[in-house]
Task: inverse folding
């Protein structure tokens, strides 16, 4: 499926830009995306 291929490329690109290990999971990337939002809204974000 071409959409899943594109999504995978985007996640891999984000991982490289952020300096994450090659085996980084999508969950780790989601946490990086959501952490500034959660900490700014008064919810305590755990590292």
Result:
């Amino acid at each position: 499926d071409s959409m899943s291929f594109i999504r995978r490329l985007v996640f891999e690109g984000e991982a490289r830009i952020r300096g994450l290990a090659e085996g980084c999971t999508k969950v780790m990337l989601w946490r990086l995306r959501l952490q500034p939002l959660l900490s700014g809204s008064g919810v305590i974000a755990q590292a």
User: Anything to note?
Assistant: The two ends are 34 Å apart (CA to CA). The helical segments are 2-18, 26-40. The chain has a mean pLDDT of 65.
